Amino acid sequence: MRFYRGIVAAAVICLAVLCAAQNYHVTEHWKVGGQGGWDYLLSDDAAHRLYITHNSRVEVVDTTTGKPLGAITGLKSTHGVALNTDGKTGYISDGAGNAIVVFNRADFSVLATVPAGTNPDGITFEPATKTVWAFNGRSSNISVLDSASNTVVATVPLPGKPEFPQADGQGSVFANIEDKNEIVKIDAANRKLVATWPLPGCESPSGMSIDRHKHRLFSVCDGGKMVVVDYDSGKVLGLAAIGDGPDAAGFDPKHGLAFSSNGGDGTLTVVDSGKPSFPALQNVKTEKGARTMAFDASTGRVYLVAAQFGPPPTPTEAMPHPRRTVVPDSFEIIVVEP
After folding, report:
1. Beta strands 38-44 and 49-54: pairing type?
2. Rounded CA separation 116/193 (Å)
3. Distance CA 322, CA 123 (A)
4. pTM (predicted TM-score)
5. Which residue stretches of the chain are H helix?
6. pLDDT tens profile 201-251
7. Cβ atoms of residues 47 and 40 within 8 Å
8. Rounded distance, CA 104 to CA 336, Å?
9. 147 near 168, Cβ under 8 Å?
């Protein structure tokens, strides 16, 4: 009898994970408005806040109500947000400003603007050393900021153009190198590159999420692939099929699900990381252009952002492939949940 109870219990657990994955759907659209494009977003699960980089500002939204709380303003072109574990301070990569902007999470005031490398993009807080790591897309290096003094204490060279980073919480920082199809591992205490791992089957890795329990990284790539890497050995564990045009990833540690936000075809792919083949369980229809996302572990929600676009501008010799402009006040948050 004990044997059969064990089988039934295992089946219930498997079905729970499967059902959670296969029932993801869009539940709400929260209007943000404003003008211009956007990049990464970050969920502060404990505070029930969502930070969204939006043109020259960072929007802050209450995730219990969907209402705006305020914004960090006066920047040039925002890309990413990182949060100090002190619960008080946050950091923004201001790409066009070539700076790390330090802000107060209580009132959204700017505390400091610190010069960084050229076009800081991805950014993360490393808790073991209490440092902030801004990955500079055009100068192919990292500006390391000491959070106690708000000064850049090191510049770490990289082998190519960095995209999104992740910290394991134990003193290591990882980042995708987009133009080399690689992941780099950095020792935060010594501020030096300690490993470079190739990503076969992955073209132009961009977004990255992390499973700190199983020591895995999930990098989303062009060509509809997510590559899964063991971050102790650098071994590629497998490739998952995802949608087109991804730029961000997420991970749900409770259910072992990895997510890819795909702006090219307007989908959110849900991947089962518990199976060796890493099957895609669902492709949730979102909106075209919804290429970045944030996962909220406190609710199980996924947040994406999108907007409407105007007609393509006329190509010119100087700009043969002009970008479509965002329709003013059409910017919104898409809420996806099981």
Report:
1. antiparallel
2. 19
3. 28
4. 0.92
5. 2-22
6. 999 999 999 999 999 999 999 999 999 999 999 999 999 999 999 999 999
7. no
8. 29
9. no
